[in-house]
Specification:
The protein has helices spanning 2-23, 33-61, 66-90, 95-122, 136-165, 171-191, 202-282, 286-299, 312-327, 352-370, 420-431; strands spanning 331-336, 379-387, 390-398, 405-406, 409-410, 435-441, 444-452. By secondary structure, the chain is of the alpha+beta class. The longest helix has 81 residues, at 202-282.
């Protein structure tokens, strides 16, 4: 019974805290938090029982030796596989984010175990005579070290994820995952204190401390590099979209000025037009009066600002690109836009800056493509609709038939262009747990974006 409690409690003591580390930042995206929590505990208890049974089998089959310890460690790692599979399947999020959390957790757990073993040996405790894992003193060391270091690992994980999630590519996640795995292998192949004989060697202790410092320093430097790279790309992207918004706002302002001047001109000339019409009517020349009115209406129909919806950013962008397309003789059609473009009940609104990036990039790419087509064939269609808690934006446009595909993804057809616009759209759809679809048929390109409105409590709506 004592051995059962020793193996069972020791396993849970190692697994439970790092299950939290692996899933805490992602829990709000689980399909059901309560069910996920209960199933997770049940699975961990089951794996603890399986591990305990495996330890008893190892004791029966092998005499006390280092072989017992190694087999127990290998069996421990095998039991982690179903646990990680459970996390991957039950949490709804981008797979590369989940991969990053998994690798970060593995490295954090290894460092914690190493520190616990170091403290265990430093205070003169000996490895159990049966060469099996866990003991009362060892479990106490694991518990104390975990309580101290786990909050720090969790804060670092959340901060790194925040930086990477706002970056312009998945490369940052892959890089951090690769770095975690490299450091895990480096620590796990000899530098982790498995054999207690080496713990009394000052050189080994010094090497261990140096490797731990190097691990944290490498992590910190790498995060700083990614953060600075992200800030540079973000600044470039923000400048680009600020310029677009300024151009749209300028267009809106110029329209107001034109309409004001036009209104003054109409008021000034109105009396003269009435005099002429009165003359035609006095002479009973109704045909001339009708022609004069028709010509007057045609000559007084300038470009008008159309109120499409209640969202000012969307409204200005649609009018801006409508004016740009008119100047390039591109047929611009707004198929459908909800007049009251607002979030559903119980949901937060999508940030205006994010919405402008998505719509601005879609329409700018569409206008660039349509401008290469003869005016008689050039067109752009845009539609926006609400389906439950999902906002759908779609754009169709004509193009010259030239497509640049790389590994199944559309690339920019401009020379020396990194297609930052498409990357921005994809990352923002991931931010709102939506999706994108780009396809073409003959000489028509279709682009659609789906965004989920965030719930007021921060979870998926």
């Amino acid at each position: 019974m004592n051995q059962f409690l020793r193996f069972f409690s020791g396993y849970l003591l190692q697994i439970v805290p790092f299950s939290i580390l692996c899933t805490y930042p992602l829990l709000k995206h689980a399909s059901s938090k309560r069910r996920f929590f209960l199933l997770s505990l049940l699975l961990q208890a089951t794996l603890a029982a399986v591990f305990t049974a495996g330890c008893f089998w190892i004791q029966i089959q092998f005499p006390p030796s280092l072989t017992r310890t190694n087999l127990a460690n290998v069996f421990f790692l095998i039991t982690l596989v179903p646990l990680f599979l459970f996390f991957f399947l039950c949490i709804r999020d981008a797979w590369y984010r989940k991969l990053f959390f998994t690798s970060h957790t593995m490295l954090s757990a290894l460092i914690t175990t190493s520190l616990a073993n170091f403290i265990y040996a430093f205070f003169g405790f000996q490895q159990p005579k049966d060469q099996m894992p866990y003991s009362l003193a060892g479990n106490m060391c694991i518990f104390l070290v975990t309580v101290i270091v786990l909050p720090g690992f969790l804060m670092a994980e959340i901060k790194i994820d925040h930086i990477l999630r706002n970056s312009f590519s998945k490369t940052g996640y892959f890089s951090m995952c690769f770095l975690s795995i490299i450091l895990f292998v480096m620590l796990g192949t000899g530098l982790i204190f498995v054999d207690f004989i080496y713990m009394s060697n000052p050189l080994t202790i010094f090497l261990f401390i140096c490797v731990c410092i190097l691990t944290f320093a490498t992590y910190g430097i790498y995060v700083r590099i990614i953060q600075e790279t992200h800030q540079k790309l973000e600044a470039q992207n923000q400048i680009h979209h600020i310029q677009t918004q300024l151009a749209a706002t300028k267009e809106h302002y110029q329209w107001i000025i034109r309409m004001n001047e036009y209104s003054k001109k109409i008021q000034h000339d109105f009396r003269h037009h009435m005099v002429i019409l009165n003359g035609f009517l006095e002479q009973e020349d109704y045909a001339q009066a009708f022609d004069y009115i028709t010509q007057y209406i045609r000559s007084t129909t300038p470009f008008s600002y159309i109120h499409f919806c209640s969202n000012q950013v969307v409204d200005i962008l649609l009018n801006h690109y409508r004016a740009q397309c008119n100047s390039q003789k591109i047929d611009f059609r707004v198929q459908s836009v909800p007049v009251n473009l607002a979030p559903p009940s119980g949901c937060e609104d999508i940030q205006s800056s994010d919405l402008s990036v998505i719509i601005g990039n879609l329409l700018e790419n569409a206008m660039t493509a349509a401008s290469k087509v003869p005016p008689t064939q050039a067109f752009i269609q845009i539609g926006i609709c609400l389906k439950g808690n999902t906002l759908v934006i779609w754009v169709d446009n004509s193009f010259d038939g030239m497509i640049n595909l790389k590994e199944g993804e559309y690339q920019s057809t401009k020379n020396d262009h990194a297609a930052i616009g498409l990357k921005s759209i994809r990352l923002l759809t991931e931010k709102y747990f939506g999706g994108t679809e780009f396809r073409h048929e003959e000489r028509i390109f279709h682009a659609s974006v789906m965004l989920q409105y965030p719930a007021l409590d921060g979870s998926l709506s």
